């Protein structure tokens, strides 16, 4: 399935994906895919899409047994915060990142929609913490080729690929040299 057309001069924007280079030395972002929620002159903000935690949401929120999925580690910043992205137009107050993909919204409506089955558990993902960059920080990392930037992504790439495969799937979709990156070993000494 084709999720987006790659433009080599892409700048991160709302809904873009940041894909870490194969040998990015930061353990917080090793082989990660980050969904950008905001990028402006003050900095950038997003969520790591492919780092599930060992914690289930109902372990964090006692009254939330209707959702029996793992919470993801959104990034190294503020692990005492809970965020979510989803693909439900029924949740008010969310920010549309790409057509049909939303960040946040009315939490009580999320609970109600999940409880009634109008929102499926595979159409929402919860995150503890987030990934954040201060003024100019992401641009410096981009100049150092730490990240590959995609155009805004379709929600399918986020919700219909396993976290273990997402990094490879996105790189394969980009094609060319990025497709080659997807097959790089985690530790080149093992090659």
Q: Could you characterize the architecture of this molecule?
A:
The protein is of the alpha+beta class and 191 residues long. The protein has one domain: 3-Layer(aba) Sandwich (VC0467-like), CATH 3.40.1740. Helix content is 23%, strand content 30%. The chain has 6 helices and 10 strands, in the order E-E-E-E-H-E-E-E-E-H-E-H-E-H-H-H. Strands 1, 2, 3, 4, 5, 6, 7, 8, 9 and 10 form a 10-stranded mixed beta sheet that branches. A hairpin with a 2-residue loop joins strand 2 (33-40) and strand 3. The protein starts with 16 loop residues before the first strand and ends in a 10-residue tail after the last helix. Mean pLDDT is 87; it is low at 4-9.
Question: What's the arrangement of secondary structure elements?
Answer:
Elements: E1 17-20, E2 33-40, E3 43-48, E4 52-56, H1 57-60, E5 70-73, E6 77-86, E7 95-98, E8 101-103, H2 107-116, E9 124-133, H3 137-143, E10 147-149, H4 155-159, H5 163-174, H6 176-181
Parallel strand pairs: 5-9
Antiparallel strand pairs: 1-2, 1-10, 2-3, 3-9, 4-5, 6-8, 6-9, 7-8
């Amino acid at each position: 399935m084709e999720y987006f057309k790659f433009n080599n001069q892409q700048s991160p924007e709302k809904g873009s994906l940041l894909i870490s280079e194969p040998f990015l030395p930061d353990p917080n972002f090793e082989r990660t895919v980050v969904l950008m929620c905001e990028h402006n002159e003050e900095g950038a903000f997003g969520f790591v899409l492919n780092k599930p935690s060992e914690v289930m949401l109902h372990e964090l929120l006692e009254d939330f047994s209707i959702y029996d999925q793992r919470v993801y580690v959104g990034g190294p910043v503020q692990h005492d915060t809970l965020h979510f992205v989803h693909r439900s137009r029924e949740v008010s107050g969310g920010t549309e990142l790409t057509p049909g993909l939303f960040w946040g919204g009315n939490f009580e409506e999320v609970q109600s929609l999940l409880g009634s089955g109008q929102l499926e558990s595979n159409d929402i993902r919860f995150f503890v913490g987030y990934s954040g960059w201060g003024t100019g920080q992401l641009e410096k990392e981009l100049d150092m080729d730490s990240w590959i930037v995609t155009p805004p992504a379709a929600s399918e790439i986020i919700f219909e690929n396993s976290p273990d495969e997402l990094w490879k799937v996105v790189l394969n979709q980009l094609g060319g040299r990025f497709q080659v990156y997807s097959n790089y070993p985690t530790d080149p000494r093992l090659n």
